[in-house]
Automatic annotation (TrEMBL):
Chain ranges of the ATPase F1/V1/A1 complex alpha/beta subunit nucleotide-binding domain: 1-158
Top-level taxonomy: Bacteria, Pseudomonadati, Pseudomonadota, Alphaproteobacteria, Sphingomonadales
PANTHER family: ATP SYNTHASE, SPI-1 TYPE 3 SECRETION SYSTEM ATPASE
SUPFAM superfamilies attached to this UniProt entry: P-loop containing nucleoside triphosphate hydrolases (SSF52540)
Protein name: Flagellum-specific ATP synthase
All residue ranges annotated as the T3SS EscN ATPase C-terminal domain in the record: 167-235
Coiled coil (UniProt feature): none
Source organism of the structure: Sphingomonas rosea
Pfam families linked: ATP-synt_ab, T3SS_ATPase_C
Keyword Transport assigned: yes
Keywords (A to Z) from UniProt: ATP-binding, Nucleotide-binding, Translocase, Transport
Length: 243
């Protein structure tokens, strides 16, 4: 936490931030209340007309605190040991993010979920995915390859992104996803030498362009960029002649 405050926020960021901390060794009630207090603070600034960025790490720890409280109070365990109250609390927490009433500001919420055993269909991740507008999936295998941010582009989905881009950028994005999807389907065969070049123009194009797309999304912690420039670079990659 100290590293985040000093290195990421810094004096300038801290002057515009409210930090609520309840570490994993804190009592379950305190951990649960820290999350609820965070959204209450965000709502205060939203109602004052501010545009609020709310970061929470993590919803899983909020749910685990709710599980401890529920089990101690006598609730029966349900899905993977989580009592029903946990799944009732999740929308009460997460649905508070979003735009306010006319004349108010908004809350943009970024909530992390720690999946159990890399299972993205485990109960908390599944429940959160159904509530929020989109999800960014970080992959352990991509991190092990040394590509950061370790975002799995094919598993990451946003319901609002298509409305945030112009038609040309949307077409570029979808074409890039098709190339990455084709490469993901054929990667193992290509590496084993079971694919003969020239058998499919679509696969040949994916083999040529997928590494370039992967290289484009690699980014260092201090790197800064603009979406317009990124889409222009992606369009240039996709404009490469057929192999």
């Amino acid at each position: 936490m100290q590293e985040f405050i000093e290195d990421d926020l810094g004096p300038e960021g801290l002057a515009r931030s409210v930090v609520v901390v309840a570490t994993s060794d804190a009592p379950a009630l305190l951990r649960r209340q820290a999350a609820l207090a965070t959204l209450a603070i965000a709502e205060h600034f939203r109602d004052a007309g501010k545009r609020v960025l709310c970061l929470m790490d993590s919803v899983t720890r909020f749910a685990m605190a709710g599980r401890e409280i529920g089990l101690v109070s006598g609730e029966p365990p349900a899905t993977r040991g989580y009592p029903p109250s946990v799944f009732a609390d999740l929308p009460r927490l997460l649905e508070r993010a979003g735009p306010g009433l006319p004349g108010q500001g908004s809350i943009t919420g970024l909530f992390t979920v720690l999946v159990d055993g890399d299972d993205h269909d485990e109960p908390i991740a599944d429940a959160v995915r159904g509530i929020l507008d989109g999800h960014v999936v970080l992959s352990r295998s991509i991190a092990e390859r040394g590509r950061y941010p370790a975002m799995d582009l094919l598993k990451s989905v946003s319901r609002t992104l298509p409305h945030c881009l112009d038609p040309e950028d949307n077409r570029t994005r979808l074409e890039a996803r098709r190339i990455l999807s084709t490469w993901a389907d054929m990667e193992e065969l290509v590496r084993l030498g079971a694919y003969a070049p020239g058998a499919s123009p679509e696969v040949d194009r994916a083999i040529a362009l997928a590494p370039l797309v992967e290289g484009l999304v690699a980014q260092g912690k201090e790197d800064r960029g603009r979406s317009s420039a990124a889409f222009a670079d992606l369009a240039n990659i996709l404009a490469e002649p057929e192999p």
